[in-house]
Amino acid sequence: MIVKPLNLKLILGLIYLVIISIGIYFLFTKIDVKDLTSYEFIRSNKDIILNYKTENFMFLSIVFFIFSIVWILLLGFATPLLIFSGFVFGKWWGILIILTSSTTGATLLYILVSFLFKDMVEEKLAPKYYKLKDFFIKNDIIYFMVYRFAGGFGTPYSIQNILPALFNMPVKNYIIATFIGSAPSMFITVALGSGIENIMDKNEKLSAINVITSPEIYIPIICFFVILLITFIIKKFYFKK
């Protein structure tokens, strides 16, 4: 029995949508999202998490790496992964893991969407993002790199990952632009997660005073606002078409 390409796309697309639905159901029924974002909850379980990391460092790194790829592939948002990566693994190992895994997950998502859902993406996104075509034609690597650096100018992370499907961006260019363009902003967020862990390590509460007096916290925040300013300038003067 030969499966026609159209039927194969339909089958794979349905499988993908079912997996996403199951993942969302599990997230909101089995996990209390309030706990995951609660400073006191994380603080009270810090020692358990970090002790496990110390005893199972490589295993936890591999599990987190794979989980991050799957999370991005299933349209998950990046910020919790970045904070967790910095909190558990520190700035340098944390950024290496999350930058590599998120680039891998985003690339797989891009390939998947280009193969299965390109018509849907064009229908939904082309009217809103058609002005970007000229920039991609001129130099897709440079533009998408800047686009990533600027956080997609406010575009949700999952949309950033699939947007180049509109412009048939080569996979190699996509990987280069995503990895390099995402690095600065991701490193800032990972460093913030590492700074929070340092505050907890001193058994202090996360307060305005701690933010002001702790360079592990206020330096990433300052860098974040610097990127916002640069993003505003780029958008206003360079991508104003």
What would you say about this model in short?
This protein is mainly α. It has helices at 5-30, 33-36, 39-44, 46-55, 57-73, 79-89, 91-116, 118-129, 133-149, 157-162, 171-201, 208-213, 215-237.
The SSE string, one letter per element, is HHHHHHHHHHHHH
Number of helices: 13
Task: Point out poorly predicted stretches.
Answer: none
> What percentage of amino acids are in beta strands?
under 5%
Query: Major sheet, described briefly?
Result: none
Shape: globular
Q: How many strand units?
A: 0
- Computed over alpha carbons, the radius of gyration is 20 Å
Helix coverage percent:
over 70%
Summarize model confidence as the mean pLDDT: 76
Q: Domains counted in the coordinates: how many? A: 1
Structural class call reads mainly alpha
Q: What's the N-to-C terminus distance?
A: 51 Å
Write up this protein.
There is one protein chain. By secondary structure, this protein is mostly helical. It has one domain (32-237). The protein has 13 helices and no strands. Helix 6 (79-89) packs across helix 11 and helix 9 (133-149) runs parallel beside helix 11 (171-201). It is globular.
Topology, element by element:
Elements: H1 5-30, H2 33-36, H3 39-44, H4 46-55, H5 57-73, H6 79-89, H7 91-116, H8 118-129, H9 133-149, H10 157-162, H11 171-201, H12 208-213, H13 215-237
Helix pairs in contact: 4-5, 5-7, 6-7, 6-11, 7-11, 9-11, 11-13
Features:
mainly alpha, single chain, globular, 241 residues
